[in-house]
Design goal:
Elements lengths: L2 H24 L24 H23 L8 E6 L2 E8 L2 H12 L6 E8 L2
Parallel strand pairs: 2-3
Antiparallel strand pairs: 1-2
């Protein structure tokens, strides 16, 4: 495996892992906004995230990491200028790139990632 491919794999894996850890800490185990109580300690989990929401978040976080890693592999795209968010399999790309070709390529790359249902391309060309 080439050195660049290994670096991209490590970066993508790290992004996904840190994103998952961040979701765990701010979700189920954090204070709930409505009561200020810590979810899961009193037996009342109605204000915490449901299992389906948690599974979706983990899946979305993984998709986000995979899209970022795929964008990093593209030499024609300055992926550090692209912000990626995923909600229920819908990937949103935002930020500024150099030209329309990069906008089109970024959307195309994002669509190739497993689990992506659709891409909302909100990228803009730098002026």
């Amino acid at each position: 495996m080439k050195l660049l491919d290994k670096r991209i794999l490590v970066v993508g894996t790290a992004v996904a892992a840190f994103s998952i850890l961040g979701c765990e800490r701010s979700g189920e185990y954090g204070a709930t906004p409505s009561t200020g109580k810590t979810a899961g300690t009193s037996g009342d989990r109605s204000s915490g995230a449901s299992s389906a929401e948690s599974a979706s978040t983990v899946g979305d976080t993984t998709i986000t990491g995979q899209v970022k890693a795929a964008l990093l592999k593209e030499p024609d795209i300055k992926s550090t200028d692209i912000h990626v968010e995923t909600q229920h399999g819908v990937v949103q790309l935002s930020g500024f790139v150099n030209n329309q070709a990069q906008i089109d390529k970024a959307a195309s790359v994002a669509n190739t990632v497993d689990g992506v249902k659709s891409v909302e391309n909100k990228l803009s060309v730098k002026e």
